[in-house]
Design a protein that fits this description.
The protein has two domains: about 170 residues; about 120 residues, no CATH class. It has eleven helices and 13 strands. Strand 7 and strand 8 form a beta hairpin. The radius of gyration is 21 Å and the shape is globular. About 30% of the residues are buried.
């Protein structure tokens, strides 16, 4: 029995030591180097004709109006955040629909001039626009995760990260764009030999000089009144609108908490999913730290950014980031 326990313990430590999270994955140097001199095309999404026709026929113009407004908000936000935060190369981004991109791919001499940046739904695939749906009552958009992807035209993406934002808003789009800059620049410098976690750990000292913005909806009600006893550094509970504004304006005095979902793998085998809570610098999108502690999921909200839960941060989350702020983690 003792032998079995010892073997199990060894196995457990070996397993944990080799676990990786998709959020830390880096693209290949070859792909990053190639897009450096290409022009980015940002895919914008037209309304889904099937959804519009369905609710027009049911005489629910308010549903169609809300749906079309959500699409329009996404396209405008994506354009604004790309212009503000995309820095990896100096080429002016173009904004085109997937149908327009398909036309470009028909001519090889044109196709090789560009790469694409886009979001797509978990339920669909990288070849389709958002797979947003309206529930049976016509009351809300439903779906699950969104992917942020970068790739060459007419090919699977070489960089693909998932996040729990059904209807992408400024804080998530800014994070995805900025974090892509950080990762691509890191790969460009280190080629295929970098350690992204080590790079993040070097930024931990930045947190102590920032006010940490936390969405009110992110915090578990059980600890709402006790945050100060766990986290003694500067923080502020804010609405989603306030956080989006701070991110969009590049507030240099603040950092913010954002959750991203990532698959967990061991030796190349996907084992499941977990949430990673990132601490991000508002000014430039650079990650200051992260933790997988203190997370619990909650139900999604109507027409909001959430599907797996932007709520439920518990005391162990605040205790873990307190150690980051104190500089005890290197």
């Amino acid at each position: 029995m003792k032998t079995c326990k010892a073997l199990l313990l060894v196995f457990s430590f070996t397993f944990l030591a080799t676990i990786t999270y998709a959020q830390f994955n880096l693209p290949r140097y070859k792909d990053v180097a190639e897009i450096k001199n290409l022009q980015p095309i940002i895919i914008i999404n037209p309304p889904n004709d099937d959804i519009v026709k369905k609710y027009d026929r049911k005489s629910k113009p308010e549903v169609v109006q809300t749906y079309e407004q959500l699409i329009d908000n996404y396209n405008n936000t994506m354009a604004a955040m790309m212009k503000k935060f995309w820095t990896f190369n100096s080429k002016e981004p173009l904004f085109k629909t997937r149908a327009e991109v398909k036309e470009i791919t028909k001519t090889r001499s044109e196709k090789i001039k560009y790469f694409i940046i886009y979001c797509y739904s978990y339920e669909s695939s990288y070849t389709h626009d958002f797979d947003w749906r309206i529930d049976k009552g016509g009351e809300r958009v439903v779906g699950t995760y969104t992917h942020f992807a970068v790739g060459f035209l007419d090919e699977p993406p070489f960089y693909d990260v998932m996040f729990p934002d059904l209807l992408p808003t400024p804080k998530y789009i800014a994070y995805m764009i900025s974090n892509t800059n950080v990762k691509f620049n890191y790969v460009e410098s280190h080629k295929d030999n970098g350690d992204y976690k080590q790079m993040i750990s070097k930024n931990a000292h930045l947190l102590s000089g920032k006010t940490l913005l936390i969405s009110k909806d992110q915090v578990s009600p059980k600890v709402m009144g006790d945050i100060g006893s766990y986290y003694s550094c500067s923080y502020r509970l804010v609405s989603d609108d306030e956080m989006n504004q701070a991110v969009a304006s590049g507030d240099s005095a603040s950092a913010y908490v954002i959750r991203c979902n990532g698959s967990v793998s061991n030796s190349g085998m996907t084992m499941g999913n977990t949430d990673i809570n990132w601490i991000i610098n508002c000014a430039d999108g650079v990650p200051i730290g992260y933790t997988t502690k203190g997370t619990s999921a909650s139900a999604g909200k109507m027409f909001t950014t959430v599907t797996i839960g932007d709520a439920g941060l518990r005391k162990d989350f605040f205790q873990d980031i307190a150690s980051l702020c104190a500089g005890s983690k290197k």
